Every structure is written in C-alpha cells, then in structure tokens.
TrEMBL record:
Family: Belongs to the UPF0702 family.
Sequence intervals crossing the membrane: 6-22, 34-52, 58-80
Listed Pfam families: DUF421, YetF_N
Domain of life: Bacteria
Cellular localisation: Cell membrane
Domain YetF-like N-terminal transmembrane residues, every copy: 3-76
The keyword GTP-binding appears for this protein: no
Any one of the GO CC terms: plasma membrane
The name this protein goes by in its record: DUF421 domain-containing protein
C-alpha cells in the first residue's frame, strides 16, 4: 500500500509542479536568478520529504508547492518592475575588464581569481588578453566579451556589402514521408525531388530520414543509417 501511495504522490506533485512551472515562464537553469535557484532547492526538500515519508499528510505538501511557486512568481514580477530591489537581491552584470585592464575590486567582490577569468576567456576562444576591450560577468555567471576593434571579424557592412535575407529551410522529407505542402511553397514537385535524390544516389523517398531545402535551392539530405557502436569507427 505504501508503494501505491508513493507513486500517487509522485504523479500528483510532479503534475502540479510542471503545470506551475509552465505558467510562470521558461528560463535556462544556468540563467536562474538567486531567488529562483533557492526556490528550487526548497521545493526539492519539500517534495523529497513528501515522497520519502508516506505518513506525512499530502495536501499540506501540495499547498506548500503552490505557495513556493506563487512567491517565486511574485518576486520575479517585483524584480522586473523594481530595479532598485533587483540590484539588491540578484547578481547584476559586473565589468571585470575595462579598456583592456582588469578591475581588481570587482573581481574581488565576485570572488573571481585571475585563473577563473582566464578559463572563461578561453571558453570564448580568447587566449590573448591583448584582444579584450571589455569583459562582463553576467548574472548567470557566464562572461560576455567585447574585443578590441582590430580583432573583431569583418562583417558584410564593414565591406559595404548588402547580403539578402536568409530564410529558414523547409522540411521536404521527414522519416521517409514527403511534405507536399512545403514542396508547393518552394514551387517544386515530387518529380524534382526524386531527380535531386537520384543525383545523390538515393532511388526512393523511403530511404531518406530527413531532407530540407532553402529558398535558394540548397538541399540537405540525411539517409536512414543503421545504428552502430560509435566506438567501432572512432577511438576516443
């Protein structure tokens, strides 16, 4: 009987938790503000105790979950509407390199060592500090970098070029099934698609796992490949 109670509790709590999270917004775990992160820890403790101990009344636990999520939602709304409070209880962006020079006081406040900053810069493919104009630690702990002008890559606007808009490719075949509606949008038909597949050595639509095409006519084709052990072909 205890196992049935535990199973029902898991289903009810997780269903309620999922519903509330979907209603309060979607964010990456790494980008959660401090209060949101603390809310998850508390929720985990409450739900864990409820699941592990069947003798604990279940309805108060559900009430606690609703209350914690509601408080989290209210605090998030408050942070959006009141920047003064937001600066007090969240980690805002902090400049640690300005005009190519380290700001020691900000690094000390963040408890970031030089080694940590160098590691974060390497993750951005920056191995030479001479390239860095600004480096900012975001509230999530990640780092944003602005390179010095001479180290920035050329863009079409720098070269006075005006590239055309790049649309999304349209799926033409998904798991062997031809998407006729997308073919019509591209003003193509099955005979054209069959001819393109024949040039790639594919005689039948059923042999294609996925294929798409851009507005410019660039085709991507992925055949259905039998599963195999990755280590058979690669040494790690």
């Amino acid at each position: 009987m205890d196992y049935l109670i535990i199973a029902l509790r898991i289903i009810s709590v997780m269903a309620l938790f999922l519903f509330l999270v979907l209603k309060t917004g979607r964010r990456k775990i790494a980008e959660l503000p401090v209060y949101d992160f603390l809310s998850i820890i508390v929720l985990g403790s409450v739900i864990g105790a409820d699941i592990a101990e069947p003798n604990i009344p279940h309805l108060p636990v559900l009430f606690a979950v609703v209350l914690i999520i509601a408080l989290q939602y209210l605090v998030s709304s408050l942070l959006i509407n009141n920047k003064k409070i937001a600066r007090k209880i969240t980690f805002g962006p902090t400049v640690i390199i300005q005009n190519g020079q380290f700001i020691k006081a900000n690094m000390k406040r963040l408890k970031y060592s030089i080694e940590t900053v160098l590691m974060l810069l390497r993750e951005k493919d920056i191995f030479d500090l001479n390239e860095v104009e600004y480096a900012i630690v975001e509230g999530s702990g990640s780092i944003s970098v602005l390179k010095k002008p001479q180290y920035l890559p050329l863009t079409p606007s720098d070269m006075k070029l005006k590239p055309g808009a790049k649309g999304l490719p349209l799926p033409l075949i998904i798991d062997g099934k031809v998407q006729d509606g997308n073919l019509q949008q591209l003003k193509r038909d099955r005979s054209w698609l069959a001819a393109e597949l024949a040039q790639a050595g594919i005689p039948d639509f059923n042999e294609v796992f996925y294929a798409d095409c851009t507005r410019e006519g660039r085709l991507y084709i992925s055949k259905i490949v039998q599963a195999q052990n990755f280590h058979d072909d690669f040494t790690l």
